[in-house]
Write a structure and sequence with these properties.
Gyrase A, domain 2, BirA Bifunctional Protein, domain 2, OB fold (Dihydrolipoamide Acetyltransferase, E2P), 22 strands, 30% helix, five-stranded mixed β-barrel, single chain, 24% strand, eight-stranded mixed beta sheet
Length: 589
Amino acid sequence: MRLKRTVTCGQLTGENVNQEVILNGWIAKNRDHGGVIFLDLRDRYGKTQVTFNPDIDADMAARAKRLGMEDVIAIKGTVQARPEGNVNSNMPTGGIEVIVSDLEVLNEAQPLPFLVSDRESGSEDLRLEYRYLELRTEELQRFMALRSKTYQSARSRLNEEGFMEFETPVLMKSTPEGARDYLVPSRIHKGRFYALPQSPQTYKQLLMISGYDKYFQIVKCFRDEDLRADRQPEFTQIDIEMSFVDQDDVLSLATRLTRGMFKDILDYDLPETFPTMEYKDAMETYGSDKPDIRFEMPLVEFAQYAEKTDFGVFKDNLAAGGRVKALVLKNAADKYSRKIVDGLTEWLRTYYGLKGLAFVKLDQSAFSAGISKFFSPELQSEIIGDLKLEHNDMLFFVSDNEAKTLQALGALRLELAKRENLIQPGVVKPLFVLDFPLLDWDEDSKRYIAMHHPFTSPNPEDAALMDTDPGNVRARAYDLVINGYEVAGGSIRIHTREMQSRMFELIGMDEEEAQARFGFLLKAFKFGAPPHGGIAFGFDRLIMILAGTENIRDVIAFPKTTSASSLMDEAPSNVDEQQLRELHIKLVE
């Protein structure tokens, strides 16, 4: 390489006029104006227009004319102010151009599978196959720069708070609880396996026992679970743990860190304190434990009215212990035909197992359409007055068991908000959700399981319920929700062997199994474990929100598809028999 760059493609301004410079980069645009060749040369810092004038060097201008998109070149030239009328105010370098005196072609590119200048010119699968090309696009370069800057912000602010940064093992003991572990076979220890960590949970607790009272780690985690737009099989956490703290201390730290990152990255001022909401209120009001509070439209309790209707579905579900809840959609009834409602119903049936979606519309002062015939005039007046309904409002109803009713209506709330443009762009609404249940009932195994993980401390006020009514025990657990996404979650941990053993018993884990899985942690509890708690930020989701995208793959350099595969390098792949024999593994159909 003869011509090594002296400046980047985003650096030159009018102050550099008459200077000789060398630029290296990719050709982003090629234009021929009567034999004068104009190229936009791009690197990650920006673009600069470089000009080949045949009056200066006809041979070099002819070579430049043959260059194609994404060819990698180096040029030497003199910076010149652009002629009046040719200034491009949309480019930081738009006031200058470089008149080329020397050209070196470093690498020629083949025809592109999609345009680097237009991400949407290729399908997502195609872009993932050629991810290294997609990473050249302006949008992804911005996302990757934002991600890098957020790493630095998080580290800087946690260092200022006195936290020590650690690394914990990637090859660890398999302790499956919740999502499936990714397993790694051991060549040396025949028939045994390591697991990739779902989180550094046990290690960070051991570090608290070791006396390091403020720990953090930006760490890779792995979960073998079904994927979606905001989830990946390998993901990054800002993992935080603290000793001698209570819940308010952790929430205060999480608030300061979140405010700091939004200020550093977006210059956006979040409130000094974030609102809080109990889990049960979030579910009843929004149908979600990660409610989007950027818009109104709360779920309405409808049982008291449903009992007075002649609609058998409502009455039957209530008699069976089910629920009836409603949503009020303001001034939009005329947009929702039977066909559109049927489409919403089918969507809820497919993804949430819902049997049906009922509705009525308010026409002047009376119900119409849908199930309106099941409401007496007196009941209609009562509902209209209580819910402050107006002409052209619409009521949607869901009636099923509690879980399906809340989940489906919560999903419908979000869908209607998108359709009606109720979410104001550029608004960020954080919220702490508190007092999660300690346990979930698993119908398949007929036992309780930990809602978060089995190291979460029960609320001391509910300790007596652990023996009599474990399903109603609250956890000292909390989530940070931003714009409907769970951005961080954590808890105050169990720190005594006695309480930890009791928790294992509640989830059906006997002493032998507890020792086999977590004996090392229980042993450590014998030697003076401090009270401790923490929180982990889903770093990829945080970046997704900061970047203003709804696809987590946009903010990860080399993501997997929703089937956990990499289209670029074809992972997962087959391995040869010799490797399997060394690992003592035999594949079976």
